[in-house]
Design goal:
heterodimer, A: 4-stranded mixed beta sheet, two-stranded antiparallel sheet, 6 helices, B: Methylamine Dehydrogenase, Chain H, 4-stranded antiparallel beta sheet
Chain lengths: ~230, ~400
Amino acid sequence: MKGPLTCAGEGPVLVPYGVDRLPTSSGWDSPCLNLRSGEVLRLNCEEFDLPPPIVGQEDRPLDQQLADHLKRLAGGWDRSSTGFIDAYFAFLRSVIVNHHHEIEARFAGFAGLFEPADTLYSAPLPLPRALVPLPEDAGAAPRWARVDIMFWLGGQHPCQTARAVLFSPSRLPPKAERLRRESLAAAGVNITVLEPGAEASPGVFEAILGDRAHTFWRDETLPTAPGGPRLPDI
Amino acid sequence: MPHLSANMKLLSQNRLLENGGVGEGISMQQTADGRRILWLAHEGPPANFTAVDVTDPRRTKVVVQTRLPHMQVRSNSLEVSGNLMAVAYQTVSVGLQPAGVELFDISTPESPKSIAFFDCSGPHSRGVHALWFVDGEYVHCATGFADFQPRNPLDDQFYMIIDVRNPAKPVEAGRWWLPGTRVGDAEPAPQRLSKLDAGFRAHNTNVYPQRPDRAYVGYIDGGAVILDIADKSTPKVVSRWNPAPPFMGFTHTVLPLFSRDLLVVSEESVVDAAQDWPKLTWIVDARHEANLVPISLCPLPAPEEFGPKGGRYGSHNLHENHPSPLAFRSDTLIFGAYFNGGVRVFDIADPTRPVEAASFVPEPPAGSRINAVQINDIYVDEQATVYAVDRYAGGLYVLELDI
């Protein structure tokens, strides 16, 4: 396992998610993702497991299933995260609407195989309760900083590509919160702190994602849905 | 040195000119000249309220201390909004005065100026026990009134909203009482608690800018009440949750945690030696506000440990996440006052499993009629400095949190 974020730009970075902390016992099976420099973590990431729909909800649209799953990963009693995820998906849909004709034109040669709405899954994935690996001293145990939401935007160096969203009020005690922010800043993670309701403010997703907020739909040649069957390692 | 402490340390203590009995009113002001003034309502006469300069929390200084007009009245509760302060007055028995709310201009803390008095006296009224004033526009309080006759004398205080947008002329905006508690109600009187009848009346009445249409009311033996106050003239019940019976009643504070759809509900211990144990601090799920579900309790030391130490032991006031830039706000850390159990801080990151994160129990204060501290109320400022007060003699304890 490659632990901490470094500026070396080599090898994947292992990021657990959907948990508040790493378990202390062995036999742990928490979800993780291997994140690589130069690769954006998208909603259709093959490694990101999307469970089958709940019985009786098989007809629920895929994007809503995905949003529901992300909200479950955020944990219970967290209106800030669920509100953020809902607002993010609404934002992505609005971007697609605004670029509807351009997207249609891109798929004109595919005889209706793709729809503009399919490009939603090319957008960056908001990873709930991500444990961001921190730079470590030689010989020291790995350290992690839990962030409420993490985006991985595929910069050339890991220290330039991780975007952390923290909600206010913090879930951490004051000293722990201060140490978290200091650690993330030292690791080169870009931090955005959102007050309650700020996810509904204009420009919030542009501030977090930069240009990619409005161009994700043309990042990939063809759309891919999440939750597809994973190819076995060969 | 403290008697017991974990992750907290004492920065200073101020005995408030030997009037160290403080009630349930702690509120912070930032003055035009940059000072931080903590206003404290005293638990009983002769002192009314005291202002303490806490700009340097290690060297606090009394700025002004005022006195009550006689010994049959107490203030106990106050709140500051900007440079306007509301102070409660409650008499020892019905029919006396002053009983109500007084508004002060505290622009110059050394010289508080009375602006108006809202009279709540009456033949069946003791006046105001507790008030909440955070938006500069409305005072929310637990009070009696001239036109309110309770069926049971213990039920003499209800929830009232007072419009103070013109602070020189406060007027009633609305009220709510538990149906059945007033003479003339069509509803039957509530069933009294058999073990300890503390009354069906209002205590803390909190309203927040995140939900200005909601009042969160501790209604003593009536439990926790959420009211729809979109129309302040006619508050309506959204939901009510009451663990009593079989628990011991005296619901005191209902603290909403808006980012988590939770409530923290504290009771008040009112009998010495933990004879009314358990008096608890509940974590309640409010994702469906019409269906409140208790999910856990803040863990408290056993009554055998603190009950015999003297005075009361059990839950009481909480730091209420005042919507002020001068207040600490957290939906995860809960700060409580537990009488001789001192100050206790709970981490409810996992609301199904609260854990104690810090505590501080001062030594018995000199001059107290009880050989134990009785931490009565608590306030945490935006820098997470903790201000806790003793009910009888210890005055103000300023604490530093180390978590």
